[in-house]
Write a structure and sequence with these properties.
mainly alpha, 268 residues
Length: 268
């Protein structure tokens, strides 16, 4: 039985070692970013995420909710600004590739992407995904309803970022698409959340959900297109993981969007 953990000797080789113009070494620096360097602890956090969330809900059951408006505003505006900057960097890189008209290169060329400076931003994006769990903490402390979609996508995306960090870099460049789209949507989403904490709301809030849904549609299509990548066999388990993840998000966000649009039509 093949062991797919990072100590597998199959993966103890640098696929980009012959790239003399390397600006970033994903094999060494990307994979060894904290918390990926301590992958057992990384999985321990994944195991306790849901129990801790349920325990927090139980603890808050007979307590008054916290307001936290100022803290929430600071958190959301910080996340929005950081996401905006990250989206600018990654989308600029992606746009330059797409301007050549070669979409296959934009999906498959891992050698160029993961040896570029942009790869550092993708690595940081992957390594800090667990920080989004703070959103769950705020929901618990404010006694807000935590829907299945919320905790499921936070947990699964967290695990996928680990897997992508260790395996996708040697097979494809789909991570660039996933990262840039997520940062773009989060820039808008967290920005809107920041405004709601100071009582500025919009009847067009459903647009955030539309963007999230479109992100899942595009990500699913990109995953399917990556089957054509020459090195995809080196990460076929990642292909299955990505396809399962994004198709599930497609249906979950689609269901959420349908409910929001239905509610909007009823009150409109």
């Amino acid at each position: 039985m093949i062991n797919y953990f990072p100590d597998n000797p199959i993966y103890h080789s640098d696929p980009h070692i012959n790239n003399i113009n390397r600006e970033f070494n994903w094999y060494i620096d990307g994979r060894n970013m904290i918390p990926f360097k301590y992958f057992k602890f990384y999985f321990f956090l994944a195991c306790i995420y849901y129990p801790c969330m349920k325990f927090g809900v139980y603890i808050m059951k007979h307590r008054n909710p916290f307001s936290l408006n100022y803290i929430l505003f600071s958190w959301n505006i910080t996340m929005s600004l950081l996401s905006t900057f990250g989206a600018y960097v990654t989308l600029s890189y992606l746009g330059n590739i797409l301007s050549t008209g070669d979409i296959k290169n934009a999906v498959c060329d891992h050698n160029t992407l993961f040896t570029s400076n942009t790869a550092w931003y993708i690595a940081v994006f992957n390594a800090t995904k667990c920080l989004e769990w703070i959103d769950t903490v705020f929901l618990v402390l404010r006694k807000r309803k935590i829907i299945f979609l919320h905790w499921f996508h936070h947990l699964i995306t967290y695990l996928y970022c680990w897997h992508g960090t260790y395996y996708s870099y040697r097979s494809d460049s789909t991570g660039l698409w996933f990262c840039s789209m997520n940062l773009f949507v989060h820039a808008i989403m967290y920005g809107y959340y920041a405004l709601t904490t100071i009582n500025i709301k919009s009847k067009y809030a459903y647009i955030v959900t539309i963007l999230q849904f479109l992100q899942m549609v595009i990500a699913t299509l990109i995953t399917l297109f990556s089957i054509t990548c020459p090195d995809i066999s080196k990460n076929y388990h990642g292909l299955v993981f990505s396809l399962a993840m994004y198709t599930s998000y497609f249906f979950l966000f689609g269901k959420l969007l349908y409910r929001k649009l239905l509610f909007k039509s009823k009150i409109g």
